[in-house]
Amino acid sequence: MRVMGVDPGLTRCGISMVEGGAGRTVRAIAVDVVRTPPELDLAQRLLRIADAAEDWMRAHRPEVVAIERVFAQHNVRTAMGTAQAGGVIALAAARRDIPVMFHTPSEVKAAVTGHGGADKKQVTAMVTRILGLAEPPKPADAADALALAICHCWRAPLIERMAAAEAQAERARRQYTQRLEQQRKAVRG
Prior knowledge:
Elements: E1 2-7, E2 12-20, E3 26-35, H1 42-60, E4 64-68, H2 76-95, E5 100-103, H3 105-113, H4 120-131, H5 140-188
Parallel strand pairs: 1-4, 4-5
Antiparallel strand pairs: 1-2, 2-3
Helix pairs in contact: 1-2, 3-5, 4-5
């Protein structure tokens, strides 16, 4: 599975591409950080991020895009910018019919380090180790983008099994409801 991991942000937006194989094997294909100057108009900053994401999607052809979900930040302005950057990337993926999955920071940290409260240094160290990189990816946004892609590669099978189980439960519920209705009609005669 080829996953594009995105650590959204207006000033620095981490983008990565990872190939997931059998079991928990993952291989880094590419990683970069898209930077936009704060003095640039917001719409132009978002356009630059969207253009970079579209270039990545065209060049690397991901099967899914994994974006960090904006969970909570103390600075509302930062949270808004992060959400907007993630939104334009999700839109670019949707235009190409590429599924988009959102993962919270704690899900990503737990998947990569085993602890949902890990700090950036721990995440970077584990990403470097998991991918067998010679050097830690810099800046942290690059490591976070790789961590998102790794997280999705490892969580996707569970997500698919959960969706299948939910669909099966819904079918069983509908069948039960239909049988109940048929029995009621038979009793009313």
